[in-house]
## 1
Amino acid sequence: MPTTRRQFLSLAGGVTAAGTIPIVTLRPLRATPAMLNTAIRNVVGEAPIRTGKVKVDIPPLVENGNTVPMTVTVASPMTADDHVKSIHVFNEKNPQPNIANFYLGPSSGRAQVATRIRLADTQKVVAIARLSDDTFWQVAVDVVVTLAACTEEMN
Amino acid sequence: MSVWRAIAAAALVAAAPALAGEIPPDARRSGYSFMGPDTRAMQDDDTSNPGMLFVLDGEQLWGKKTGSAEKACADCHGDARSSMKGVAARYPAFDKTLGRPVTLDQRINLCRANHQKAAPLPYESRDLLALSAFVAHQSRGAAITAGDDPQAKPFVEQGRDLFMQREGQLNLACTNCHDDNFDKRLAGAPITQGQPTGYPLYRLEWQTLGSLERRLRSCMSGVRAQAYDYGSPELVALELYLMSRARGLPMETPAVRP
Amino acid sequence: MAALINVPAKARRGDVIEIRTLTSHIMETGFRHTADGKLVPRDIITSFTCRYNGTEIFRADLFPAIAANPYLSFFAVAKESGRFEFEWIGDNGYSSTASASITVE
């Protein structure tokens, strides 16, 4: 994928924020609405967010946006020294950007959480994990929500 | 709005000359077979099926004394696991006293009026859905036989006529979608055969349990028709026809549908 | 209100077990309006906690984007026999609890 100007700027910004550490740092996401960005920064602060380690499973074609099964998994040994402290899930187009925060630890054994969420429309879902070394890792997935036929009138 | 465009497109398809074919018994398919794997998984596991929350509530209500007669369902019917087994697969059933078929919801309210001396539970109320779900759950796996009673036949016929009758601003009959065009898609969602195997069921759209009558009413507003009232003879007849049309399919209550 | 809890009755020490909970709640978003235009006030579960023999092992903050009748699945290391306690807290003073026991060999 060609680097867009916005990506380039965010890469440059990331390098500045991270000082001399040679890692690829992304501002949350291209075309991310301001509310989502603010919600993410409320959790992460100014810390850099790296892409990787986190996986979000949502059915490729959501049958109804009112109840969407979602599983978030983080690659982590979940030991006392190296574990996931929390997972934060956000969305782009619902009225509110937060979906859920999950707090876990070494006694979880596995860094995997599943729930059912509401998605108002086809949109991005972002999951961010905070590890025990206080690094943040993220993934963003595009979710296609099909519009059901013959839905009841809005009430 | 795109949903209405899609329905209008379906109306054009339906208007093309096609034999209004009734679905032969061996081709009858539950709505379950039209769902994706994730929704199926939600129905299959009782601890992830949200409909089971209502079944649990219904179990509580079954044993709870109510009305001025201070009677619980269990005081007459005992253990529902045996006394209610297979019952919902026969509903709506012909009531000799009334001379017409009654739905399971109506039967529960008749019991409340006649035996418990209690006020009827409103249609779609949590308690009525919970009791219905608990009773119907005892028939899970049982083959549907509603409409077999010879006395019910005229009402099955009435329901069939309603199923075949075009209605609403889109001028569509139930049969145009659910006999002639199942397996096709409407606004991204598959058209099912409309087999009512799992009511009351948990719709992801509703995010709650609901009755077959609620579903029928939302189809009616979908084709821009005036929906019949809950408990009206027309809805009961349609429900009876739909159940007789699903003859032999196993009950799934509480089913999960998109 | 009803809740459905799935915790294995037995596990070997050190096993990672899955815990699933499902509870009745409308999860009214606070963003919907009635037919006559009135805003339906928010009524959601805001917090879920799981304790294992008294120690918190999992917690969640929930928002209106969580579907009605919240479902949660998460994992725990089976350390000792005892009890998992679950607590849901929400708007308008909502609170409910459930528990499940486990035998660890």
Note: Residues 3-28+42-104 of chain C form a domain with the Immunoglobulin-like fold (CATH 2.60.40.10).
## 2
Amino acid sequence: MSEKQFEPLIITFCCYWCAYAGADLAGTSRIQYPPNIRIIRVQCTGMIHPNFVIEALTNGADGVLICGCHPGDCHYLEGNLRAKARAEAIELMLEDFGLEPERFRLEWVSASEAQRFAQVVTEMVEQVRRLGPSPYRMAV
Amino acid sequence: MIRLTINNQEVEVPEGTNLLTAIERCGLRVPTLCYHKALTPYGACRLCVVEVHAPGRAPTVQASCSYPALEGISVFTDTERVRRARKITAELLLARCPDSEVIQRIAAEYGVHEPRIKKKYDDCVYCGLCVRMCQERMGRSAIGFTGRGPRKKLEPPFGKHNPMCWTCGACDFICPVGKKVRSLTSPNIPIPILNPYNMGLNERPAVSIYYPQAIPNKPAIDPQGCVHLKYNACGICDVVCEAKAIRYDQKDETIQLNVGAVILSPGYDIFEPKANNDLGYGRYPNVITSLQFERILSPSGPYGGMVLRPSDLQPPKRIAFIQCVGSRDYERDYCSAVCCMYATKEAIIAKEHAGEDLQCDIFFMDIRAFSKGFEAYYETARKLGVNYIRCRVPKVEEVPETKNLRITYLTDDDRKVSKEYDLVVLSVGMQPPRSVRQIAETFGVRLNQFGFCETSVFSPVETGREGIYVAGPFTEPKDIPETVSQASAAAAKVMALLGEARGSLIAPTVYPPEIDVRGQEPRVGVFVCHCGTNIASVVNVPAVVEYARTLPGVVYAENNLYTCSNDSLERIKQKIKEYGLNRVVVASCTPRTHEALFRSAVRAAGLNPYYFEMANIREHCSWVHSHEPEKATEKAKDLVRMAVAKVKLNDPLYPRPLKVCHDALVIGGGLAGMTAALALADQGFTVHLVEKEAQLGGYLRRMYYLLSGEDPQAALRRLIATVTAHPNIRVYTNAKLVEVKGSLGNFESKIAVGGNGMTQEIRHGVIIVATGAETYRPTEFLYGQDDRVMLHQELEERIAANGFKAKSVAFIQCVGSRNKERPYCSRTCCSETIKHALKLKELDPDAQVYVLYREMRTYGFRETYYTKARKLGVAFIRYADDRPPTVVNHNGKLSVIVRDETLGETIQLLVDHVILAAATIPRDENKELAQLLKIPLSEDKFFLEAHRKLRPLDFATDGIFLCGNAHSPLDIEEVISQALGAAARAATILSKDTIELEPTISHVVTENCDGCAYCVDPCPFKAITLVEYQVNGETKKRVEVNEAICKGCGTCMATCPKKAIYVWHFRPEQLLAEVRAALGLAV
Amino acid sequence: MAVRLAQEWFAICGGCEVTILDVGEPLLDILPQLEIVHMPVLMDHKLYGQTGEGTEPEIPEADVGIITGGIRNEENRRLAQEMRRKCKTLIAMGSCACYGGIPALANLSTVQELYEKVYRESVSTDPDGIPSEQVPPLTDRVYAVDEVVPVDIKLPGCPTTPELFVEALAALLEGKPLSLPSKSVCDECPLIREKKAVSTLKRPLEPIEFKPGEPLNTVRCIMEQGYLCLGPATRAGCGGKEGIPRCIRAYMPCRGCFGPLSDTANPMVDMMGALASIGLDAKQIPDRAATFNRFVGAHGRLRPMPKGGRPV
């Protein structure tokens, strides 16, 4: 066997109404994607405080992915738009924490977009894999 | 029962079980190619070998599929010896079928990537699955092995096609290496079972879940495709289903229900072009219907959301949409009302999916973007490069070599153009459901000339037979919001009829008293589900259970074959008592389907249902990582650890009961307000009806005749009389709402009555906004300067008073609508103009009537009157959007100068009168009311509903509803539907004594909140207010959450810079505990 | 018996020492109870013995030790350790001691960059060399005192307030615990809050809307007026006796000198989240990290910016 590939760990926040359901549909449709994500269920992407993302990243997560409803589809009207605004702020702050912008991503995934969910996750995992482990990762 | 150990784990299995089954029962996996649960073991592939230690005998290596589970033996599935044996086998198999992905994967698991011996490039591994399948399950024996040793061959008897073959395709289905076995046995090609949900664009098995969102989300057997039901063979699904849920004997049943009312909402069928249609549908593969295209665009559709065309599954570069297929023709003289917009939507989505370069041409007659927000959407489409070509396409021809399609059409300036497309989408219209005659006969309802259910303008959901109501496109082609409104309207009628029986069939669940476990150390019980093989075939369930036991706080863990089965639920309850568990984690499937069930079990054991978490190790793990069992097992452990970390921090939560005041406030005493008030009053609720004018009636007071012939004044008089006399309605005229406090269920309002400073206070549970709209007062076309230029209503009043005579009249459409200032369509004016034109022709058949229009938007059955007007000689002259007509006084006559776009020439009309179809505009007072009620306005300044399509009558704020022209311009029938619908929506609240509100809402942490007020404005529901309070003589500030309004979205929690507000069940500590647990940190 | 007091100053401007003077008359009541045994700003005390014979710095035993300033060099570090050894109770006074303060803005750069800037690139210096003799070496970054030695009491503020200082001393003398306010500056701020929807940020030089002398409770929240105010993420307590935040009293926005609401809070993340939520495009905020962490750059809140690619 060649050198063991780096397996990133990506914290994924999914809104319960769209993205979580999309991830479920990926399951029922048996669409395969890398097992590197850990989904945390939230009611709405609008409830994700930038703190959660920064805490995750500065505690050793290799990446953070947030998946929510498409604009206009938010169960709570505009939570996803707030999430978008906060994501822009988070992207700015990644630099201040010495983290590459590619370690964080906000994506819209509807309840029916199983394929898209799998694709987003696959891309994210590959993207973070290329970056290597988080500088905050504890030495193992 | 036989007892043995597998990898040192003790197992009990029934006698006669083979080792492989026993191993799988332990949640372990061994590779196999030739074993199938539904077929007799064959021992051909030798991959499933394991080491068997029988007492007193030397260990042997045996194929576990064909070796029985024996008392007292010890089995080892992963010893060095076993691995060596499997590795050699895998290498030999790989040499035989080096191209098979399945074998490559198995070989790779044992470290074989290249065989050391010569590759044979065979397409058969001689596993015999197809042979056994055909013989044992299908009883056909259409295929078998011939020859021996190196000459062994898979072939039908005599090497010829075998008449015994049913072409069932089971052989192809079961072959692990993808060999096309069926082609050996039969020249026939199986007829696929087309997936009706995807409009026949792809196939589905004979047993399947109908579509991903189906409720219940359970598979069903298609009796037409099932070999078992047809020939009593196969039956594999019964063997495979671990839950033993297959029931072949289930039959359609006739159920008798005793009901007090019936709502008919059978929907519609799409128009299917006839076999030899000129548009090539059914003949050319790349001519499809709009509903097929809708499925192609869907992520769960036949091509996974990729825009491909059926003939070659290539992405089209040019798509043509042909409008009015099956609408607005000789036979179907009505407009289907939805096709213009769905074609526009499909074009936009197609461009989104396939890229901007995708050419989308829409061939249309009139673009009928008449509903709220549609005109703006149409504009967006044009900006995005969707081409609209005004031409009715007569014919589509196929280019046989490419399967492309050619459309020849006339341009605006009369040039003949021929264009080629890769895909043609027919915008098929709505038709009455095929079973319409039978429905009509069964229920005794009348159908109109086109076969839709007949209703009348003033009773849009009534069929003429009491107790039978109707909703949806069954009455007339209509879009989603209109359908939703009408459905609610039908419900309102039923509730008025059956109000007394409300709630009488509901049986509440009774739970034991709840145990208070606050302050106790968490004692977590973890239940890990095998879900048959759904989870256990990938995730090592026993390992997960073992791991769960090591987690801090976990005092009990076990695995279940099906945690959701009744006996498992009982076990959970029992273990809660036995081990004094105060928290429960179930690691199984998605909470979206099973959380309620488990919570209810936890509650039944006396725990608060929120002391429960689920770890989704099926949808989010075993099903999506089925080729990576080790990693999936690790992930499952992580998910369990996260759930345990969270559940320890969970709080007991309770639904909050909210007492409801049963009175309603209706603002606006026009047709909408009165109808809504009456509908609620008829259900027994007290209604306060507030009208700003001195009289009830609103705009309807100025209408004297209708297209359909009814007398609006008579209807209005009846309505006013009923409303005024109704014991449950209190009418306030010359009245205005000046103050509103409270929220859903408990409003307190002040009404200024009579304009003399007197106010009256009322309490009510809901508010219905029915404030109507106004008519635009034009400044153009000499209106206000020349008496002969009039608006619709002025003409109507003159005609009603017998005071109108004219030999020639010109109507000008879109006065004040669809322009820069008001970029929306006023919806009703086209039909109103037709109404007046017909009236004028009725009064004087020789009168010259001209209609100057941009697009005639006579949707639905209004189209029939448009046709009638044309037949009667009304001249329709189309002017371009940017070239409005001009009106001048020409020697005493009114001269209308307009460029006729159809003729391509400018013409002058000398007429006696010019009638302006003036826009319907929102009231200025809307802004004030919006602020008072904290409800939003749209860009056009009409009120903005919660969801354009699905919640047209609700506001985002609970307890406030909307209907009538305050929503958008609507005609009488639509206003009544909306008003009844809004009443039904309101009744869902008023009919309850208390409302149970979700407990997962925001909570202010008083110790941390200092009223910086950042969270106030981001709240989408305006549930947060800043309040002042006194402490030690100082004025301090903090925020308060209105619990009746809060929906728990958590926008406030993510805004707060000081952790002073959170959503119950999603507290930052809980979410961060999950994050930390996921990262393997101490929680 | 008088309480023996030792005081030491590190990377600091001296403002906190002035705060002690600023206590005013009450100081006269306190002073007799104190015996100052070490305080470089007042008295000359030889750390290495009268003749410099010692090898390690030495400070007399004391009941109370006060440190102002953060740890910038190895001498600071050693002295801090000596203070901890010799003082029963150790007070970190002022934001520099508590959170790094203004000197910790240097944490945005590496030590090497600092040397380059100060000793080579600066136009006023002779680009000769970096002095290494007779000066203690710099630490790799500026540390708060509690990152080096345990601290018993923290008195934040730049400078801290005389009231807080007196309260702390009084509490110590009486043997009572001192608790700092847990709420933010907004708790003490009397300005009116109407609607937080700020889309563009005003520059600090643009005039804030108020009439001179106007009562504060009629002036609109300065953030709502469009000026960046760190009040919501800054600990309250700067208001002293009047209980009104110092900067607000002067019609100026809070700059965050009292530090974060908790040791784990990050004012930048909290404020960026809040500001993004009310519609402000965070790109408008100049010098983001330094603006939000102006006084709290220790504890890893400020770190050198990665220069191309890998983070530091």
Note: The longest helix of chain C spans residues 74-86.
